[in-house]
Specification:
The complex is a heterodimer.
Chain A lengths: L1 H19 L5 H8 L8 H20 L21 H17 L3 H7 L5 H25 L1
Helix pairs in contact in A: 5-6
Chain B lengths: L5 H22 L5 H10 L2 H25 L11 H17 L4 H8 L5 H24 L5
The chains are: A mainly alpha, B mainly alpha.
């Protein structure tokens, strides 16, 4: 219960952040990625604000022995930079540059019931499923 | 109208950073949306419930903010449906293959000084910018 409420609250902050920063607006995001056009550096400031806050916050929080409502911290330990990482990030970047949506903003934008974010989230879900199917085939 | 908005960008970014802090402090999880969304589908039980709660909160938080700030969404109308679908599939597949997105790698990973996340972020920023350059300035599609 406390986990769900905490996650709900964290999600709420995230959604609010996406709207306030206008990251849920694909045109705003594309204006940042459009380095050769009318460039809008706003996304850099979003990243900056987020990075600074998380950097300080994580430093303090990860000093604790455990989170409030769980047995331990689930922090990734993998340090390997491999082809999967590079290829995955590349494919993601292409998709992001095409529509101007990444997962968070697209999900947030569905609240407008617009056909574009709804379709994007559906397709993105398809991508999730496709990956899981393909990776099962590769490792079986 | 696309206008440089440093203050709201910073504030929004801080809210996102705070979200990551709350999630880590409370249940020790990374606020990476691709992992949370994909995991909500593939997991069950308590692994699924916190993820669904987070996503519900995300949508609620966005909705409340849009309403409170009186934001009028002007959706673009000229963007081809097939391109939205291709983009969505690429983002879904790519974020799983690369283990993260702008929140997971870009914010949560870099703030932990993860080399993997720094590399991933540079790569998707680069390919994102290259894609926009090709679409807008070579192919001359869309604004």
């Amino acid at each position: 219960m406390r986990s769900s409420i905490s996650a709900l609250f964290a999600g709420g902050l995230f959604g609010a952040g996406l709207v306030v920063s206008q990251m849920a607006d694909p045109l705003k995001v594309l204006a940042f990625l459009d380095v050769a056009g009318k460039w809008d550096p706003s996304l850099m400031f979003v990243m900056g604000g987020g990075l600074f806050t998380a950097f300080v916050g994580y430093k303090l929080i990860l000093r604790r022995s455990a989170p409030l409502f769980a047995d331990g911290f689930s922090v990734p330990t993998n340090q390997v930079i491999d082809a999967r990482l590079i290829l995955g990030a590349s494919l993601f970047g292409i998709g992001w540059g095409l529509a101007g949506y990444c997962p968070g903003p697209a999900i947030a934008a569905t609240v407008t019931l617009g056909s574009e974010p709804l379709l994007f989230v559906l397709a993105m879900t398809g991508g999730f499923v496709a990956h899981d199917l393909v990776s099962k085939t590769w490792t079986s | 109208m696309i206008v440089f908005t440093p203050y709201s960008a910073l504030l929004g970014g801080v809210l996102i950073g705070l979200s990551a802090c709350v999630l880590m402090w409370s249940i020790g999880r990374i606020a990476g949306i691709s992992g949370i969304a994909a995991g909500a589908l593939s997991t069950s039980g308590s692994e699924r419930s916190w993820r669904l709660s987070f996503l519900a909160g995300l949508i609620l938080g966005a909705g409340i903010c849009i309403h409170a700030l009186g934001i009028e969404w002007t959706p673009r109308i000229d963007f081809p449906t097939w391109l939205v679908i291709i983009a969505g599939v690429l983002v879904g597949f790519g974020t799983r293959l690369g283990s993260g997105c702008t929140s997971g790698h870009g914010i949560c990973g870099i703030s932990r000084l993860s080399k993997r996340s720094i590399v991933a972020t540079v790569v998707f920023m680069g390919t994102g910018m290259a894609t926009v350059f090709l679409v807008r300035h070579v192919a001359g599609l869309g604004t």
